[in-house]
């Protein structure tokens, strides 16, 4: 995946995440102390967990709120579960090797750790968008009822 595409996906993801968070906060105030508020907290916790799963899977960057070359490299290594593209340090672009303070064996261990940290079936980025869409419809229905 290219750096531009990774950051485009990240922007879209974060936009949906922020929409959900904004709507969740406003609806939480309206429904404070109700069973619905408790359910909304559970949904919010699931969204938080999905975000962390997407970071672990390499779909979102770990350090910054934007992919840089190194973050993208780490994401690509996570997605290269069988080590087809990154067999060793020699497969890492030279200007990014300084991010790896290891020898070849340490790189293989890191590669394995990153690849196994990434899930075989990562949480889909669309999850937050789907929840945000449902929450928006719910919020609009509440406004109509008011």
The Rg value, from CA coordinates, equals: 19 Å
Strand-pairing-aware structural class? mainly alpha
What is the count of helical runs? 5
Residue runs with pLDDT of under 50 for 5 or more positions: 119-126, 141-146
What is the overall silhouette?
elongated
Whole-Å distance between the termini?
Answer: 46 Å
Features:
mainly alpha
Q: Would you kindly provide a written description of the structure presented here, covering whatever features stand out?
A:
With 146 residues, the protein is mainly alpha-helical. The protein has one domain. 66% of the residues lie in helices and 0% in strands. It has five helices and no strands. α1 packs antiparallel against α2, α1 runs parallel beside α5 and α3 crosses α4. The chain is elongated, with a radius of gyration of 19 Å. The N and C termini lie far apart (46 Å). The C terminus is likely disordered.
Provide a brief overview of the structure.
With 146 residues, this protein is mainly α. The protein has 5 helices and no strands.
